[in-house]
Write a structure and sequence with these properties.
- This protein has one domain.
- Helix content is 39%, strand content 12%.
- It has a two-stranded antiparallel sheet.
- A hairpin with a 4-residue loop joins strand 1 and strand 2.
- It is elongated, with a radius of gyration of 14 Å.
- It comes from Murinocardiopsis flavida.
- This is Phage terminase.
């Protein structure tokens, strides 16, 4: 198997990941920052990198986010 790093397509970065992860607000009741979006429904046609994108998001949320 030929291994190579996963690189986001420009549309994946600008239309999915930046809007999903960029905006946070202070929650007065919880006393910490929360993301604007808690759920995301993503519908992409075949062979456009859904699995890789979902795996990257899951790893980011598992490792980088408290």
């Amino acid at each position: 198997m030929d291994r190579h790093p996963f690189r986001l397509a420009e549309w994946q970065e600008h239309e999915i990941l930046r809007p999903l992860f960029s905006e946070v607000t202070w929650d007065i009741q919880a006393q910490y920052y929360v993301r604007r979006f808690r759920n995301d429904y993503l519908s992409i046609s075949r062979k456009c990198g859904k699995s890789e994108l979902a795996a990257g998001v899951a790893l980011y949320l598992l490792v980088a986010v408290g």
